[in-house]
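A reminder before we start the practical. When you read a complex entry, don't treat the lines as separate problems. The point of joint prediction is that each chain is placed relative to the others, so the output describes one connected object in space. Small molecules and nucleic acid strands, if listed, are placed in the same frame. In the example below there are two entries. Take a minute to note the order of the lines before looking further.
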Amino acid sequence: MLRILHQIFRTGIVTEPLPEAEAEIRVVGRQLEEAIRRRFRGSLTIRQVDAGSCNACELEIHAINNPIYNCERFGVHFTASPRFADMLLVTGPVAFNMEIALRRTYAATPEPKLVVAVGDCGRDGGVFGCSYASLGGVASVIPVDVVIPGCPPTPTDLLRGILAAVELDKKKRG
Amino acid sequence: MSRLLHSLAEALGADVAADASLRPASVAGCAVPRARFAEAGAVLKDAHAMLVAEWAADESAFGRGFGVYACYRWAKDCVVVKAELPAGDPTFPTLTGSWAPAFRFERQMHSLMGVVPSGHPDLRPWIAFEDWPAGAHPLRKGFDGTRPLARGAGDYAWIRAAGEGVYEIPVGPVHAGIIEPGHFRFLAVGEDVVNLEERLGYVHKGIEKRFESLPWGEGHRLAGRVSGDTTVAHALGYCIALEALAGCEVPERAHWLRALLLERERIANHLGDLGAIANDAAFAFLWYQMMRLKEGLLRTNSALFGHRMTMDCVVPGGVAADLTAEGKRAMAAELDAFLPEYERLVRIYDDNASLEDRVRSTGVLAPQKALELCAVGIVARASGINHDARIFHPFPPYDRLDEIELEVPVLVSGDVHARAWVRVVEVRESVRLLRYILEHLPEGPVRAPVAAPPPGGAGFAAVEGWRGEIVYWLQAGPGGEVNRVMVRDPSSVNWIGLEQALPGNIVPDFPLCNKSFNQSYSGHDL
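Here is the predicted structure of the whole assembly.
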């Protein structure tokens, strides 16, 4: 136990202002926090759906939860059930074998049902393209609000994209 | 002569013909009549071999039917046994009589290629789903892979159990948190799992078919996305097989840089897994700490190689990124800072009684079972199997074993702890290797041109990724074009290990067991 406490004190708080474009992100982070507080009572809940990715996007989505990026400080949380989710964070391409599950997950999500397509594959199928087994980008199956390109997008890209979706929604709904 | 080939020749006599199309020469290729395909498998089983992979190729471009292939290995000895099937009657005797892993390999071949293993006891679709149109075999040349499938109807015949108190728990495909999709069907009595049946294939993206539409020089990008967490090892598998096939001499420096990328990938993923295993035992502290260390490594990757996971750095003929003297110094300094931090965390893992209570004797894959399943990688090494492709199928620079002295941890308890501890030791060993590589990195070019592969040739590679042995088999068509690319991720074999390890455990321990295996859905489903 002492070792654990020692390690905790030694490590301190490692959460940092986002590395690239720090000033901008500080502003954006504040906006995100503010928008989430107003629109989602301080808590934006995300269900992540892998609709056919190679799992690299999942690693980077995990990373925004790590203590360095610490997305919870902006009020961003991940949930296991789409029924609690404000946003679906969908990685693709959409596999033919995942199409039904993705549609059902979308149907189970309550309004406002924000959908963010993640990665080059989520955008248009990426290296997998469109084939008998891949239906291409997420938008070919469910409506998409924002696309975050990248292979995979970095954690910073992901946070920016989530912010863009929250902002977009704000404008859409006035 | 290969000992396995010798056993085959002794048992099957003149029916064993050498197959000279296979490269590299260290892997022996041979052909047997299809009626004796299973017999060959039984002979090799008696010779203590392991089944590495089984696959089929549509060889109509050569004016013949199908080829079925089975790869076996025993220590450094590796053979690929082929049988030819006529197009009008694509049947062959099943290997399931001798080989447990053949159950899934053959279900997959039956679903995707439409070849029929006679005598296979369970030909339910695998990877293909029951709502695919009848007769859709995407890996056949006549199948147009660019058009979407027409969805039909159908039910999957789950394994059932009857009896008082037995109930089913269906989980997935959209399950847990940030994770790939798969379906798990538990049969349980109270909290005790009686049976676990996996149903995978949700993220099947048609990768093997896609390879056939790409030129040789672009396949490595697709290979690097078979399983994103293993991008270096998969790209390396593809490239080594292609270089063997085309006869390319990779520059020395490139070999060492490839090993450097491979070991960095191993460390990063093992850190993530160690954290996640602790997290699934409700010890979030270690997750945060391990993720902090992992993030540091990814940032160094980004600074030195331009990508956090070093995607697309391994290319045919060498590597696309070089390391400057300054980069070398930065990496050495990183390792100096990393190791003491890491050791402190390992000590905390090892000292924690409540964690120990969860990970010891949980999810046991007994050595005998691991052997029967021909398990590979960390799963195998936690269950007593001393196999590592870096030693038994060495690719440079690992072929200088007397110089590098690679140490591979092998444990026998087969539980969650053993799978975690194999990772713990491997991280240390990879750090040592990285230091060695930094010290001995030769100068010179980092990339060589790759010639066009010879028509009808085949190239083979086995690479030890962080999860385990990855196998690539590339076949050139009659014009030297891509005829077939077979990919065998370690997950194709090891997923069955999870199924076998779970009965007798309680349902709430499933996430912990699953995390300790941490197999790739994408790499399995392809």
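Discuss with your neighbour: Residues 178 and 309 of chain B are 18 Å apart (CA to CA). What might explain this?
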